[in-house]
Amino acid sequence: TTLEAILYSSLHPKPAGLVLQYGTAGFRTNAKQLDHVMFRMGLLATLRSKKTEATIGVMVTASHNPEEDNGVKLVDPMGEMVTPTWEGYATQLANAEQEDLLAALKDVIEKEAINMSQEANVFVGKDTRSSSASLSQAVLDGVSALGGHSKDYGLVTTPQLHYMVCCQNTQGKYGEATVEGYYKKLCQAFIHPLHLGVFASNCTDDQKHLSVDGANGIGALKVREMESHLKKELHISLFNDGSKGKLNHQCGADFVKVQQNAPTGIKINPGERGCSFDGDADRIVYYYIDSEGQFHLLDGDKIATLISTFLKELLTQAALDLKIAVVQTAYANGSSTHYLEDTMKVIVRCTKTGVKHLHHAAQEFDIGVYFEANGHGTVLFSKAAEEKIQQLAENPGADDERKRAALLLQNTVNVINQTVGDAISDMLLIEAILAIKGMTIQQWDAIYSDLPNRQLKVKVSDRRVIDTTDAERRAVSPAGLQEAIDSLVKKYRQARSFVRPSGTEDVVRVYAEAETQESADDLAHEVSLAVYRLAGGVGDEPKPLH
Ligand SMILES: CC(=O)N[C@H]1[C@@H](OP(=O)(O)O)O[C@H](CO)[C@@H](O)[C@@H]1O
Ligand SMILES: [Mg+2]
């Protein structure tokens, strides 16, 4: 069948010389360059399925990128991102010239000692891009070329596909592997505590209202599909639902986070809650506009703080001794880290950028809350933690307060998508917390104040000359760069700055925060100049922001 695959692949030929990299979040580039990559990822997913003797997922999406782009991510058996060794195989396979494809396949089969007679199953999903239909067909062709079975879920969000894979490989213990099953599980867990009444019986219709920016993508479709399951406990006004606007264009979570501004196409009154999804609905950020017209962003750091505060209170009430930690990256606002460590007294870990790193670190605790500042994140519960919570919830001898807390913890376990960050699931958890605590978005925002910050990009001839350590917070090369950053940071109050090569774009990213916006802007500019001078800047020298 391997040979058959190669013959078949002449239908999905590789343009000679094209080289692509399995990056921070899979392959991602202009859709026109991806047909052969998709076919080959179908082949690779089939091999991965044979190797793990489990169902593997393939998601066709380019998330927050423009509509012309597309991409592909592989999903491992428990719904997590594919393991790094196989990211390497993915790159090798995608870049093998047509005549070398057979050898590249054989290499993977040999290295992993794959039993080719083992059955293979692959779940495939796609986002709403115009290129996604034919590209996901190329994935399906790849699977059948190696004799694998596939199930095409059609239009789903990235986290929905992760969820399906996990359900399938846990024989339904995680839930039913259908989109309906997903809505049922999440919405029941969302509604249950609200229907218990005692928590927020005074929750008015106003407080139940939320404006959602669907980024003109798959998330919008899926929110609409889910609505009837919410039993009017959440009133959603959906904007940017894809009926007219362009995907991710001046809307969506990435636009809102980077521009620190509301998306176009949304109408929200002063003080009302709004949120934005990204193009494949695995990220979410919240915001509101105050009575002076000022925009307030509640990003991944604020979300992590809200969720971990809620969980910590419940653990105290339940008298459960479970270790909770928050995992962030260097981009987390310094105020959030400060608040979590000093006021809330939770363990905070910092990892490299990229969800797989955060997910991994979060697995080391009983309860691990992880979020990137841009709004991608979730909560992980260890098996032992889930068991303790369940025992208490079902213990007839436990007193009312402990039991109530255990029930709320149980609903949290069920509402959250533990496989990966999920805009829909995160939204339901956040809405439940606000309702249960009777908290407004302004009160949530006031938990701590963000330090003013600025992110810039610098173009250099080869960004690999920058090497970092300490979870990307310090540069070890080129020589003199870290010393330069250190002395610039010293000039400002409450300042912090770091640089790192991006894993998704050909740029060096510069981050700076300080006591005032002007200081943050100045520091970011000065650090950009240091990068430009010491790391081989190309084009014009970075200009000051003021
Ligand atoms: C500063 C920033 O937001 N970086 C993003 C971005 O990675 P870079 O390696 O910084 O390009 O894309 C990643 C994938 O979507 C996401 O995980 C990450 O948080
Ligand atoms: Mg995304």
UniProtKB/TrEMBL annotation:
Residues 476-528 form the Alpha-D-phosphohexomutase C-terminal domain. GO terms for biological process: carbohydrate metabolic process; hemopoiesis; UDP-N-acetylglucosamine biosynthetic process. Binds 1 Mg(2+) ion per subunit. It holds the Pfam family PGM_PMM_I. Residues 50-85, 103-165 form the Alpha-D-phosphohexomutase alpha/beta/alpha domain. It catalyses: N-acetyl-alpha-D-glucosamine 1-phosphate = N-acetyl-D-glucosamine 6-phosphate. The active site is at S63 (phosphoserine intermediate). Its cofactor is Mg(2+). PANTHER family: PHOSPHOACETYLGLUCOSAMINE MUTASE. Its EC number is 5.4.2.3. The keyword Lipid biosynthesis does not apply. Mg(2+) binds at S63, D278, D280, D282. Catalyzes the conversion of GlcNAc-6-P into GlcNAc-1-P during the synthesis of uridine diphosphate/UDP-GlcNAc, a sugar nucleotide critical to multiple glycosylation pathways including protein N- and O-glycosylation. Substrate binds at E372, A373, N374, R500, P501, S502, G503, T504, R509. Keywords: Acetylation, Carbohydrate metabolism, Isomerase, Magnesium, Metal-binding, Phosphoprotein. This is Phosphoacetylglucosamine mutase. It comes from the Eukaryota. CDD domains: PGM3. Belongs to the phosphohexose mutase family. GO terms for molecular function: magnesium ion binding; phosphoacetylglucosamine mutase activity. Residues 208-285, 299-438 form the Phosphoacetylglucosamine mutase AMG1 domain. Pathway: Nucleotide-sugar biosynthesis; UDP-N-acetyl-alpha-D-glucosamine biosynthesis; N-acetyl-alpha-D-glucosamine 1-phosphate from alpha-D-glucosamine 6-phosphate (route I): step 2/2. InterPro entries: A-D-PHexomutase_a/b/a-I, A-D-PHexomutase_a/b/a-I/II/III, A-D-PHexomutase_C, A-D-PHexomutase_C_sf, A-D-PHexomutase_CS, AMG1_II, AMG1_III, PAGM.
